[in-house]
Amino acid sequence: MIDPSHMSSALALARRGIGNTWPNPSVGCVIVRDGQVVGRGSTAPGGRPHAEPQALAMAGDAARGATAYVSLEPCCFHGHTPPCADALIAAGIARVVVGVRDPDARVNGAGIARLRDAGIEVIEGVMTADAHEVAEGLISRITRNRPFLTLKLASTIDGRIATRTGESQWITGADARRAAHALRGRHDAVLVGIGTVLGDDPDLTCRIEGYKSVPTVRVVADSHLRLPLTSRLVRTAGQSPVWVLARADADRARHAALSNLGCVVIDLPQAEPGVDLVAGLQALAGRGITRVLAEGGAGLAAALLRANLVDRIAWFHAPCIIGGDGLSAVAGWGVETLAAMRRFRRVRAIETGDDMLTELEPA
Question: Strand 36-42's sheet: what is its strand order?
Answer without folding.
Answer: 36-42, 28-33, 67-72, 95-100, 121-123
